[in-house]
Amino acid sequence: MILVIANQKGGCGKTTTAVNLAGAFAQRGMDVLLVDSDPQGSAMKWRGLASGTFPVGVIALPMPVLDQEIPKLAKKYDLVVIDTPPGMETITRSALVVADLAIIPLQPSPLDLWSGTDIVGLVRKAQQLNPGLRTRLLLNRKIHGTRLSRESVEALKEFPFPLFETAIHQRIALAEAVTAGKTITDFYPDGPSSSEYRALVEEIVSVGMGETP
Ligand SMILES: Nc1ncnc2c1ncn2[C@@H]1O[C@H](COP(=O)(O)OP(=O)(O)OP(=O)(O)O)[C@@H](O)[C@H]1O
Ligand SMILES: [Mg+2]
User: Fold this and answer.
1) Distance of alpha carbon 25 from alpha carbon 128, whole angstroms
2) Residue spans per domain, the chain
3) Residues, CB-to-ion distance under 5 Å, ligand 2
4) Rounded Cα distance, 130 and 6, in Å
């Protein structure tokens, strides 16, 4: 399975989602490759902070050739997770055309929701070449008990793609894990963020086996 984490909006949590999801799948026993297609190299830098082993392989491929390269790499792994850059449409499109599932992280803020129309258009274009591409929205940085978060869940229902039931809440441990060079499920395995990523993994597994695109 090939997962792409995409949203042209900067800072919405693509890298956080890509690295921690890859780690949560690895903890489930899967052999996972994380592809950093962002020229900023954030996932590579995160991995570079690890003092010991890292639960997933990480490679940099910041070029719009993912559609040619990823299928070859995918044969050697149970799962490939691609982190994409903000803005750079050609790279993101080349990932979307080989993906089985696109995950779009969005923050609970009107500014982030408005700019979500850009990625919707890009997914639609990619689906012309890759009609089997499934797409799901992921609410990231949800804050417990806020009206904004509740309203954002409502606003996300207007998007043409379903929203994962699991949301990732705003938690400092997610930033601390980066500093420690660890995925959240290694950094704080019993913490609430790890439980959320594990729940997300289970939802993704069920989406992967479902019938609706
Ligand atoms: N759920 C969360 N809780 C706390 N901090 C978060 C959460 N999600 C993301 N962050 C923090 O927000 C910042 C931006 O996240 P991240 O780098 O993952 O976004 P991005 O979409 O990959 O950004 P870019 O578009 O620049 O690649 C980082 O400092 C990250 O640690
Ligand atoms: Mg990033």
Assistant:
1) 29
2) 2-188
3) 14-15, 42
4) 16
The DSSP symbol for 77 reads S
Q: Which residues contact residue 142 at a Cβ distance below 8 angstroms, ignoring those fewer than 6 apart?
A: 108, 149, 152, 167, 168, 169, 170
CATH topology for 2-188?
A: Rossmann fold (3.40.50)
For 138, the token pair is 């992921």
* Pocket lined around ligand 1, Cβ cut-off 6 Å: 10-16, 38, 42, 86, 140-141, 168, 170-171, 174-175, 178
This prediction's pTM: 0.97
> Sheet harboring 57-60: ordered strands across?
57-60, 32-36, 79-83, 2-5, 101-106, 134-142, 168-169
Q: In whole angstroms, what is the distance from residue 212 CA to residue 194 CA?
A: 28
> How far apart are alpha carbons 137 and 92 in whole angstroms?
16
Per-residue pLDDT of the chain (213 residues; tens, 9 = 90+): 999 999 999 999 999 999 999 999 999 999 999 999 999 999 999 999 999 899 999 999 999 999 999 999 999 999 999 999 999 999 999 999 999 999 999 999 999 998 888 999 999 999 999 999 999 999 999 998 899 998 998 999 899 999 999 999 999 999 999 999 999 999 999 999 999 999 999 999 987 755 454
What CA–CA distance (Å, rounded) separates 206 from 191? 23
Residue type, 100: D
